[in-house]
Specification:
Shape: globular
Strand order of the largest sheet: 7-6-8-9-10
Strand content: 5-15%
Distance between the termini: 24 Å
Helix content: 25-40%
Radius of gyration: 24 Å
Number of helices: 18
Structural class: alpha/beta
């Protein structure tokens, strides 16, 4: 998933790497600092190809407009002329110069920890001050990782799995979400209002509405922010932007649209009250815009709009595209309205769904590691989701099996500052007693109070 850059900070670490070692260095950085290390901009990798000369200009470029020191790790054999660094030498801290990939691998963990750009440090920087429902500090992250060791039991130490999940974690800060929603004069041109589903005060919509108001105000945009039911009922708006943080399975969006139309809600309490005149939903041009949209959710919502004749409603595709969670076979099943059986479960989960966190072989290293990770997350996740489901409408056992990797087996590692989608792996957001490998523990989530 692409990250919208809110700013491009100067790197804290510059690595000058011979081309022959590039693949190994990148793999080690993914392992130690997360798969998004390059997008975070804390580390810059500069690959030096054969016969390239003095690299002092690359170092000088990284030192420009810096207020703190730049740690430079240059492999032995790479030419750096001290004379070319005279004007910036006070800003540079030199690391030892490794002469092999193995030497680099030995020294990297210490350097990353020192700069707080190891996996734990990056997680705390991204999440710690942004998660709105509790504290996520180094102690919290280490405690979450320790659980993967505690539960392994006879199956071994699974701490490596927790580290890979941290590497895969895609956390959306408020500013990143606002950036992606394109709440700019151009992005909201010709619209009458920005709407959310504010009918349920216990949801995160209120928090999102506050962030949107601040973003609009900062740009001098005076568009009103309203509850979608109220805006449609009063009939004063003709062009509405309806905003959510994400569309994953599409279920939540269908419950909102269905609620406005007065449909029965098969999942429990309606997401919003019915319009007095359902045709009011057809009389306004509505654009639905979210920060993150999956291909399955997009297809599901678009099918609903076609079936209900809601040709006035369109779903914007985010600038980074749709998350590819459903296979082509799964998308065809959605198109035909044949993706679910009589129990509301996916007809052919293995053929239709590609759990997102288990798509990237590079993240896990080997197929065996990925299979072990999926087994752990599924076994523990089913127990956690069953605990979460207590007190809610009963679901078939097969539905719980499906939700072990998050709703519809999406296997996401996605979180926002105000909420975590239930399509995200339960080990991130759920709590309760679990057992794996003959060991038991009271699982505590990385994101407290997310349930």
């Amino acid at each position: 998933m692409s990250h919208a850059r809110e700013s491009v900070p100067s790197p804290r670490l510059l690595i000058l790497c011979p081309e022959v070692f590039e693949r190994g260095v990148r793999a080690e950085l993914c392992e130690r600092s997360g798969v998004h290390w390059e997008r975070q901009s804390h580390i810059q990798l500069s690959v030096v190809r054969p016969f390239q000369g003095d690299q002092s200009s690359r170092i000088r470029a990284c030192c420009q407009e810096r207020r703190d020191a730049l740690l430079v790790l240059a492999f032995g054999g790479i030419k750096v002329d001290p004379a070319g660094l005279a004007e910036v030498k006070s800003q540079i801290v030199w690391a030892d110069r490794p002469t092999s990939l193995r030497a680099f691998q030995r020294m990297l963990p210490r350097i990353l920890h020192l700069l707080l750009v190891d996996l734990v440090g990056i997680t705390v920087q991204n999440v710690g001050g942004a998660w709105e429902h509790g504290v996520v500090d180094r102690d919290k992250v280490h405690a979450w990782l320790d659980q993967f060791h505690k539960v392994g039991g006879s199956r071994g130490d699974y701490r490596w799995l927790g580290q890979r999940l941290l590497a895969a974690l895609d956390f959306w800060s408020p500013s990143r979400l606002m950036e992606t929603l394109d709440l700019t004069p151009q992005g909201v041109q010709d619209l009458d209002a920005v709407c959310l589903n504010l009918n349920r005060p216990e949801t995160s919509a209120g928090s999102l509405a506050n962030k949107i108001r601040k973003r609009l105000d900062a740009q001098g945009i005076t568009l009103p922010i309203e509850d979608v039911h109220r805006a449609l009922s009063e009939g004063r708006r003709t062009r509405i932007l309806y905003v959510e943080d994400c569309i994953m399975s599409g279920n939540e969006m269908l419950r909102v649209l269905g609620g406005l139309l007065g449909n029965d809600d098969a999942w429990g309490t309606p997401r919003t009250s019915a319009l007095e005149n359902p045709d009011q939903l057809k009389e306004v041009c509505i654009r639905i815009r979210c920060g993150v949209v999956s291909n399955a959710g997009f297809a599901t919502v678009c099918r609903f709009l076609r079936e209900r004749g809601l040709h006035n409603v369109a779903v914007d595709i985010p600038r980074h595209g749709l998350l590819q969670v459903f296979t082509q076979a799964g998308l065809r099943a959605i198109e035909d309205g044949a993706e679910f059986d009589q129990d509301g479960c996916i007809v052919d989960q293995e053929r239709y769904v590609q759990p997102y966190a288990f798509r990237d072989y590079g993240l896990w290293g080997t197929t065996r590691q990925m299979d072990l990770a999926r087994e752990f997350c599924s076994t523990v996740g089913r127990q956690l989701y069953s605990h979460y489901q207590n007190g809610r409408p009963a679901r078939p056992a097969r539905w719980l099996d499906e939700a072990a990797l998050g709703v519809r087996s999406f296997g996401m590692a996605l979180a926002f500052s105000h909420s975590v989608p239930k399509e995200t792996l339960p080990v991130f957001w759920a709590e309760g007693p679990v057992e794996f490998g003959g060991k038991r523990t009271q699982w505590l989530p990385l994101f407290p109070s997310a349930m």
